[in-house]
Design goal:
- The protein is an alpha+beta fold.
- It has 2 domains: 105 residues, 2-Layer Sandwich (Alpha-Beta Plaits); 134 residues, 2-Layer Sandwich (Alpha-Beta Plaits), CATH 3.30.70.660.
- 22% of the residues lie in helices and 26% in strands.
- α3 packs across α4.
- The mean pLDDT is 95.
């Protein structure tokens, strides 16, 4: 069966995350399977590149699907248009790609990048897209702490417990707070893989560093102790975005 990658973006505010789950209605995956299956005229089983939690957004998301029919490259733009016509306004298809039959949107990804947005002043126009944190934060100290994320592999301290992952090892390639406007910052983190709740837990713990509640040594100890209860609270979901995913070029046809 031919396999295709679907590149999309979505605002996760109205959804119970990406993945279809028992007794959990209105997920992004379910909406895509229903709407795109209606256009294609066949039932779909769409596999996502990852699993975003309730309220988390994706600026760049990939999913793969196997079809009975073979799609023509020339018809991809028209099909993207048709998909977007039936999808709700908070989900947008960006492109379709033919890929090798064994190419997985999840396992073929080389790395992923997340963005976490934060602002320190009240603004009704960004309150649903960024975390309003009132108070002074030491971003230089937070960035010094963040460098230690690139020196470790086991991120159990920042993972939800009782998950089905076989390992909590990840390789963080970049972790940095960047100011991009007056009173506005973004935390950018790139890794080969992420654990459930990992970015929000890291952000919440770094905020404790920025507030002066934790020093660098204490932050390092939290990582080394491999105990989620030692880390900070998870930062709110509405300010987290899956921003970019990288794949090897040779999986595309």
């Amino acid at each position: 069966m031919p396999r295709y990658f679907i590149q999309l973006s979505y605002n996760g505010a109205a959804y119970n995350g990406w993945q279809v789950q028992q007794n959990t209605p209105h997920t992004v995956q379910q909406v895509l399977q229903d709407k795109l299956g209606m256009i294609l005229g066949e039932p779909l089983d769409i596999t996502g590149c990852g699993r975003t939690d309730t309220g988390v957004h994706a600026k760049d998301f990939f999913a793969h699907v196997d079809l009975v029919q073979t799609l023509s490259h020339e018809n991809f733009p028209q099909l993207v248009y048709k998909f977007n016509q039936v999808l709700p306004a908070d989900i947008a298809i960006k492109a379709i790609y033919a890929v090798k039959e064994d190419a997985s949107s999840r396992f073929a990804a080389m790395n992923r990048t997340y963005h976490y947005l934060l602002h320190n002043y009240k603004d009704p126009f960004i309150q649903d897209a960024s975390y309003f944190y009132y108070g002074t934060l030491d971003f230089d100290l937070m960035n010094r702490a963040a460098t230690h994320l690139m020196e470790v592999r086991d991120f159990t301290s920042f993972s939800k417990v009782n998950t089905q992952t076989h390992t909590n090892n990840c390789k963080v390639l970049m972790a940095q707070w960047v100011q991009f406007d007056e009173g506005r910052w973004v935390f950018i983190i790139t890794a080969d893989r992420f654990l459930r709740n990992m970015v929000r837990a890291i952000v919440g713990t770094l905020l404790e560093v920025g507030r002066g509640k934790l020093n660098i040594d204490e932050f390092k100890h939290i990582i080394e102790n491999k105990n989620r209860s030692d880390a900070g609270m998870s930062a709110p979901a509405h300010a987290l975005y899956l921003a970019r995913i990288s794949y090897p070029e040779d999986i595309f046809l």
